[in-house]
Amino acid sequence: MEFDIIDYVLTAIVVVIFPIWGVLDYRRFQRKAAEEAPNARVNQYRLTLAFEWFVVGLILVAWLAKGGGWPRWAWASGSVPGSGSASV
Question: How far is CA 81 from CA 23, 78, 84, in A?
Answer without folding.
Answer: 37, 10, 7
